[in-house]
User: What shape does this take?
Amino acid sequence: MSKINVAMTVNGKAVSAEVEPRLLLIHFLRENLSLTGPHIGCDTTQCGACTVDVDGKSVKSCTMFAVQAQGAEVLTIEGMAGADGKLHPLQEGFREMHGLQCGYCTPGMIMRAHRLLKENPNPTEAEIRLGISGNLCRCTGYQNIVKAIQYAAAKLAGLEIKEAAE
Ligand code: FES
Ligand code: FES
Assistant: This one.
């Protein structure tokens, strides 16, 4: 199959490659760029493990061709921590509130939560649960994921965090 050039910005860095038009964005990220934070759980748009941010929207990257991201700004879990390695409040929240067990869903959960908090910085518990309803977790029962997102929302708002993990 003939290849075409695709160029985009990923985690603030300009990248480009010759790819087959059928290459999915998740494979471009993982195989061409060695960004293995976005996971493949189902490959059928069910689980959300592959969620990344594309031009300010949460995207299941197993559902988008790399060429469809031509010129886009893409953010993956690898781009969330500061340049100095300081964890993003969401990463810190997942650690502090025990929002993960095996961790397979976690990069997708964090990227989805990132967009959720951009759109709604002070979500209710119900809004968080609805907001992450496209992301499946088989381990945690979600309770501490919700607490992790609440932790990040509070921290981003400069509020004191009192809630403990369950
Ligand atoms: S791998 Fe993309 S939604 Fe499951
Ligand atoms: S922590 Fe294991 S799938 Fe969510």
